[in-house]
Amino acid sequence: MDILVTGGTVFASRYTAEYFSKLGHKVYVLNRGSKTQPENVIQIIADRHSLGNILKPFHFDAVIDVTAYNADDINSLLDGAGSFDKYVFISSSAVYPETLPQPFCETMQIGQNSIWGKYGTDKISAESALKARVPNAYIIRPPYLCGPMNNLYREAFVFECAEQEQPFYLPKDGSMKLQFFHIGDLCRLIEKLLISGSSEHIFNTGYPTAVSIKEWVTLCYNTVGKTPVFKYVGSEIPQRSYFPFYDYSYVLNVDRMSNIISDLTPLPESLRQSYEWFRNNRNFIIRKPLLNFIESELKD
After folding, report:
1. pLDDT tens digits for 216-232?
2. Which residues fall within 8 angstroms of residue 134, CB to CB, at 6 or more apart?
3. DSSP 294
4. Model pLDDT for residues 163-213, shown as the tens digit of each residue
5. How many whole angstroms separate alpha carbon 90 and alpha carbon 16?
6. Dihedrals φ, ψ of 56, to 5°?
7. Using CA of residue 297, residue 295, residue 285, residue 50, what is the dihedral sign?
8. N or C: the chain end with fewer CB closer than 10 Å?
9. Which one-letter DSSP state was computed for residue 117?
10. Cα–Cα distance between 295 and 288 in angstroms, integer?
């Protein structure tokens, strides 16, 4: 197939571009050319908001849109695109209001989520714009993505705490649940949709079972060969000051996804791959001052 991947330089978009390239597809990446490009792809240097006629001569078997965040992003690409057969948009689980009963299902009414704020409402606007113009597009709503190339300060933060043999400061009693999804499994789902299609067009994704933050941190430490010593922090201290996730627990129903792919990469293996990549790519991590806050405000 001839496949257009938006972005292609960071985490999800880069992994996606390289995944399909390694399968032998002709992969084009659309970006502004300001970052290192993936290997074995064809780069189209342009801003999706000022495409002009650069994409008009192309026909793509599939567009995989990893980098759209709002309706303007969607409309700009569609206005400038040539012809294509299938469109896959990576949306977000942030489109579900936190007031809905859990687990969240694809059939539920989406709406504003007070935790995610504008990010969630922008993704809703992107979905709406896409459905209005490409009714048969596939929309994928992942939870937290994990695995190699993850440059966000999530697993990387815990890995660094483990390497430094730091005690780990855990919110409350550590029972808050998180749901993850391996980036490689996301690509396998996209691959299945492109090859076989589906009568469903919206998919939640994720491991069917969520893990507590205490379990997740323990797995991260074990990946580094360490065992965490926990210190518990009360709710009076803002969680995001010292921990990489919001104080928000949610779970997605992933039955639709499981009908298409079920042999998911185990979370421990995902973390192993993530740590292997992290050790050789530390400079790509987008760090936050979590360790500084711990040092100045939490340590005895």
Report:
1. 999 999 999 999 999 99
2. 78, 87
3. I
4. 999 999 999 999 999 999 999 999 999 999 999 999 999 999 999 999 999
5. 11
6. -60, -35
7. positive
8. C
9. T
10. 13
How far is residue 165's CA from residue 151's CA, in Å, rounded to a whole number? 21
H-run or E-run covering 171: strand 168-171
The sign one gets for the Cα dihedral 44, 45, 47, 50 is negative
Domain map of the chain by residue range? 2-146+182-204, 155-180+208-249+266-298
Sign of CA dihedral 203, 207, 208, 214: negative
CA distance 244 to 156: 10
Q: Which residue shows structure tokens 């990576």? A: 90
Topology of 155-180+208-249+266-298 in CATH?
A: UDP-galactose 4-epimerase; domain 1 (3.90.25)
Residue 186 and residue 66: Cα distance in Å, rounded?
11
- In the chain, what are the helix, strand and coil shares in percent, each to the nearest 5? 35, 20, 45
Distance between CA 9 and CA 17 in Å, rounded?
9
Cβ distance 194 to 138 under 8 Å?
A: no
